[in-house]
Amino acid sequence: MTPAVATDAGTIVNPDVVLDTPCMVVDADILQRNIDEMQAFANTHGVALRPHIKTHKTPEIARMQIAAGAVGLTCAKLGEAEVMADQAGVKDILMAYPVVGAPKIARLIALMDRTHMTIAVDTEDAARALSDAMVGAGKVLDVYLEVNTGQDRAGARAGEEAIALAKVIAAMPGVNLVGVMTHEGHAGASDPSVIEEKAKGAGAALVATAEGIRAAGIPLRTVSVGSTPSSRFTPTVKGVTEMRPGTYVFNDNTGFRHGVWGPDRCAARIAATVVSRTAADRCILDCGSKALTMDASLSQGGHGYIVGHPNAVVARLSEEHGVVLLSEEDQGDFHVGDRYEVIPNHVCPSVNLTDELIIVRNGEIVDTWRVAARGKVR
Ligand SMILES: Cc1ncc(COP(=O)(O)O)c(C=O)c1O
After folding, report:
1. In a mutational test of the pocket of ligand 1, which residue from 77, 242, 244 has the highest number of ligand atoms less than 8 Å from its CB?
2. What CATH topology corresponds to 28-250?
3. pTM for this model (two decimals)
4. Helices and strands counted in the chain (H then E)
């Protein structure tokens, strides 16, 4: 696969629309298209779509995903799950992250009365603490075993290690082992030429592990994979039943290189104003690390992509200053007061820094949505 030739279809907000910057603007039509296309892909391949909401943290977008056909949502934090259950009315939530510690287990037990919860486990200790608490509360909790298929983050190692742990967990009275999951993030972080191979390898390792667990008499119903860069590949592996991409709703600068999308498919941008121009080849945008985050791009250099200006580089960030180095062709633009749209390198943490999304359609502001789960890191 070759890296993307980015299609830059221009800004999403009309120049005469007044905005107080920096702010995050979202094109409603690009968002809907991203949601619909991922759902269509899942339907075509016969897998359930359970999107990860850490990218948008916004009840309105969760409802759009469910309306399009998602079977439920994925969250990383209980605080996110609480918002999605209570403000988006979502009835089925996977926490693809360990739930550890008494305060969290108490919140989980309370949340189980409001929505169906499934929790990822990857250690005997965490599973046993959950099981004991469930027995005490008179409940049984569905769990997925998280499996490490190469990312070397969380997860029991695929194969014998995971199968052995599955047997231990399946014997616990307070939990019901219903599935296995992996996050094949290592595939997306690889060179584009090997993403497909790594993604399919991860899928195959997870399916083989599930088969080993079933052979031990444990009837798993779900084999769940998830990541946006590998989303066209891992779910096509026979035996995979569920996919959990998150970033696809907005897409970002990091993803240009994956050959899947260009700026025209990036729904969320930081609108920013030139606040200083003290040199011909340099200006300051009012989006620093508190808007764009410091996340690096695996794609082109710099701290974001300035829509319509592929050669202007957001070279440095202070908290409130985005230092842009201007190529010769850009030096006639970027006057103080001019507004630009910057696609973040990594949109998920950038969303977590903003209170609201300004929703635009055909260049005009049509709504404002609260990022209700922003800051919900517990
Ligand atoms: C466990 C898990 N599942 C799914 C995802 C979604 O991946 P992506 O952001 O590539 O869409 C993530 C992302 O961090 C994750 O950690």
Report:
1. 244
2. TIM Barrel (3.20.20)
3. 0.96
4. 10, 18
